[in-house]
Amino acid sequence: MNRWYAYVALCISALILSACNDVKLEGTWIEPVPGNESMVQGFTLEQGGAASSVNMATLQYESWERDGDALMLSGHSIGNGQTLAFTDTMSIVSLTQDSLVLKRGAMIFKYARCSGHAD
Questions:
Q1: For 97-116, how does the pLDDT look when each residue is reduced to its tens digit (9 = 90+)?
Q2: Which domain holds residue 60?
Q3: Listed residue (103, 108, 105) closest to 92, CA to CA
Q4: What is the pTM of this model?
């Protein structure tokens, strides 16, 4: 019987710890600008599905949605005298409190959580 109680206690502890590790996507995520690593770019995901771009004048995020391991970012691409609506779907490879790794096709994007940024 003592082993059974120990097993139940271990299972309950595991459930509590996994609930504590439920990392939210909401927040600001940044990466170095390719070719100019002294600058950063990225996006902010707000509670309720609103999104915004960080340091990306031609790619304006407006909304986001998560479906399992898929992250969909929607907005408008601005350039060459035209504005086009888009939805970018990426796979969430990993998510921790301070890092987010996304994949689209063969491309990998590594973001860090940022507590403050300048748009």
A1: 999 999 999 999 999 999 75
A2: 24-114
A3: 103
A4: 0.77
